[in-house]
Amino acid sequence: QVQLVESGGGLVQAGDSLRLSCAASERTFSRYHMGWYRQAPGKRREFVAAISWSGGSTYYSDSVKGRSTISRDNAKNTVYLQINSLKPEDTAVYYCVADQRNFLGPYDYWGQGTQVTVSS
Hints:
By secondary structure, the protein is mainly β. It has strands at about 5, 10-15, 20-25, 35-40, 45-50, 60, 70-75, 80-85, 90-100, 110, 115-120.
């Protein structure tokens, strides 16, 4: 069972940058594909970004492409999501996800989420 704990959310202003972190309990973290979803109030959950177990492949949704970077540090069992030029529409709960087999999902493991609120 992989436990994922997100951190780094908070209240920021439009145009700011934010880096979310996700710490994994699993010692074989380096074998897991990792990703981020988000869900805004009243909206469907959105797949935001993913990174392969090696870090060699990444994916970004159109909504964050060009202003976001997903990265991982396998020595620290941690994956990061940096979002720049934040917009009010980036306001959501951000969830970290993990799976050993599927780079782009579906994912077996989900964190509890961290709230990001972007004020205009």
